[in-house]
Design a protein that fits this description.
two-stranded antiparallel sheet; 8 helices; mainly alpha; single chain
Length: 130
């Protein structure tokens, strides 16, 4: 992540609930407690705070430095057989993925209901300056 940026999901500020796949994705990167605080408050992490909580791996000076650091990160896996790496990743994430799949329709319905809520619509309009 480049300096002087912000990263996060501000749905709570707009009055919408965060879909389960987004919750699980964030929780797989940072702690459950940090995920809960961030998502229920609509917090946006500064570059430094994102690094502190483990949401990002590194801070880049600029765009080209960011790409170089991304390539270096990916190079760590070049000698790892993709089959074993893929199996391990799927195994780690399997329970979350099963729960997401089992609740897809319910979560979609809840999200649509939240987005169409008049209070959320007012928040969207204010956010967009309309």
């Amino acid at each position: 992540m480049v300096r002087n940026s912000k990263l996060g999901i501000s749905g709570a500020r707009l009055g919408i609930s965060i879909p389960l796949p987004m919750i699980y994705t964030m929780r797989s990167v940072i702690s459950t407690r940090q995920t809960e605080l961030a998502l229920t408050s609509g917090a946006l992490f500064t570059t430094e705070d994102a690094l502190k909580v483990g949401l990002i791996d590194d801070i880049a000076a600029d765009r080209s430095d960011a790409f170089a650091k991304c390539e270096a990160f990916l190079d760590r896996f070049k000698d790892i057989p993709p089959v074993s790496r893929g199996f391990t990743k799927r195994s780690i994430r399997q329970k979350d993925m099963e729960e997401i799949a089992a609740n897809r329709q319910r979560d979609t319905d809840e999200f649509v209901r939240a987005v169409l809520n008049p209070e959320a619509q007012s928040s969207f309009a204010a956010f967009l300056g309309k």
